[in-house]
Design goal:
alpha+beta, Jelly Rolls, 9-stranded antiparallel sheet, two-stranded antiparallel ribbon, 4 helices, globular, binds the ligand CSCCC(=O)/C(O)=C/O, binds fe (ii) ion, binds nickel (II) ion
Amino acid sequence: MSCLAIYLSNEPIQPIKLLNHLEDIQTELGKVGVRFEQWQTVSSIQAGADPAAVLAAYAEPIQRLQQEQGYQTVDVISMDEKHPERETLRQKFLSEHQHAEDEVRFFVAGQGLFSLHIADLVYVVLCRRGDLISVPAGVKHWFDMGERPHFVAVRLFNNPEGWVANFSGDAIADDFPRLEDFL
Ligand SMILES: CSCCC(=O)/C(O)=C/O
Ligand SMILES: [Fe+2]
Ligand code: NI
């Protein structure tokens, strides 16, 4: 089940709020401009699927989102425990950063943990198969794929260069829970 835990940024041990119903998660994230949806999944698409098949299976909702928000580029990222760059990528995504564009991710399979640092709060969102999250441009965040990563996600960009991040240099993520703490 997807969930949202909200922490004070200086108290990473105990969340001040823990939500696991879609409407509650949407309402709370909506207050800070974060879009969260659950899309119907296509059962034939599993981890390891060909990226073109993933994009074809979800062509309609992806196109709708692109038209609505003007996203120019779409790709598929697949990660598993055999991926040669899994540890490098895990550490990169775990460093607090922000993007000059929305970070839009649809989880086709598996799971990942987004943590959004907004003012003096940290919103930790467990995303699972079927979840769409859109983190607004400029929001500081990090992402944990876990020690044994397993996810496939569609990424939408309005920057034709794809993934570009500005790292804050703040080690805040080291104090906060990891993916395994939420599974
Ligand atoms: C779930 S896609 C990989 C993570 C990513 O692109 C990112 O920017 C994390 O913050
Ligand atoms: Fe990011
Ligand atoms: Ni319930």
